[in-house]
């Protein structure tokens, strides 16, 4: 059963989640878009990732979420060398993945960009795909990367518990919100500025995408998925504290999803 009944009418005009091929061509207007990277303790990857992103994006924002491993100093040096292309926001303390994206969204709107492409700074996302995300956003409000939509040569084998949780949460989102997603958690995305204005993201942690999907459904935003390779360079990456335990993380994700749905319900009832 769909949580938002209006989606049934909206879906009559087009598929809520479409899938686009991997060979879309770059857009000439890419310079009107911002590329943003939320970063926390990525000293081993940040220089190489920035070098690659610079080849495919004219303007980059890096949100340093309280790094303590030397990442912050590297970012300041890169910004000083290319002040017209790289901006850096420093969070004094680690606030979480969602908090980093909130800062990036606010910056996008404050500076008048047409939209934003987000990707992680741990080497899992390929910057040469940035133009394809921008091109796909011509026909969508949100373009979401999917690691499970298409098989790429050389794909890594995902950790079983991570893939299992992703599939369970993705299925729950599809059933309750009317989407047809294949990957609810991929951080490689493109958002049109209009989509950012339609949402108010408050979750600071890794569950932020769940709040995003609820608000996107409530706002009637169109979502399409773009296939991306499945790359895992750090199988020991931590989610933080007890969230490294799969069952606890799954319970937490379900709680955040329920809270996000309830918040939308209360907002509608309060109008």
TrEMBL record:
Residues 37-197 form the Glycosyltransferase 2-like domain. Pfam families: Glycos_transf_2. CDD domains: DPM_DPG-synthase_like. Transmembrane segments: none annotated. The keyword Disulfide bond does not apply. GO terms for molecular function: undecaprenyl-phosphate mannosyltransferase activity. It comes from the Bacteria. Its EC number is 2.4.1.54. It is an enzyme of class 2 (transferase). This is Undecaprenyl-phosphate mannosyltransferase. It comes from Allorhodopirellula heiligendammensis. The lineage of its organism: Bacteria, Pseudomonadati, Planctomycetota, Planctomycetia, Pirellulales.
């Amino acid at each position: 059963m769909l949580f938002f009944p209006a989606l049934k009418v909206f879906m009559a005009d087009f598929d809520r989640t479409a899938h686009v091929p991997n060979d879309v061509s770059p857009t000439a207007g890419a310079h009107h878009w911002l590329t943003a990277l939320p970063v926390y303790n990525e000293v081993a990857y940040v220089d190489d990732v920035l070098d690659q992103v610079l080849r495919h994006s004219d303007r980059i924002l890096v949100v340093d979420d309280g790094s303590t491993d030397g990442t912050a100093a590297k970012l300041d040096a890169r910004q000083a060398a290319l002040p017209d292309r790289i901006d850096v926001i420093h969070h004094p303390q680690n606030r979480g993945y969602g908090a980093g994206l909130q800062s990036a969204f606010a910056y996008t709107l404050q500076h008048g960009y047409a939209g934003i492409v987000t990707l992680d700074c741990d080497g899992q996302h390929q910057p040469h795909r940035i133009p394809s995300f921008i091109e796909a956003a011509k026909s969508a409000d949100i373009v979401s990367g999917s690691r499970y939509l298409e098989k790429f040569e050389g794909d890594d084998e995902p950790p079983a518990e991570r893939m299992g949780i992703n599939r369970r949460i993705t299925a729950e989102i599809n059933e309750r919100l009317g989407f047809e997603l294949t990957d609810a958690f991929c951080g490689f995305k493109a958002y049109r500025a209009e989509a950012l204005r339609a949402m108010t993201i408050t979750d600071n942690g890794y569950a932020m995408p769940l709040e995003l999907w609820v608000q996107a459904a409530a706002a009637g935003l169109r979502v399409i998925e773009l296939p991306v390779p499945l790359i895992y360079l750090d199988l020991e990456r931590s989610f933080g504290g007890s969230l490294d335990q799969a069952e606890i993380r799954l319970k937490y994700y379900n709680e955040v999803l329920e809270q996000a749905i309830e918040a939308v319900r209360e907002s509608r009832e309060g109008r």
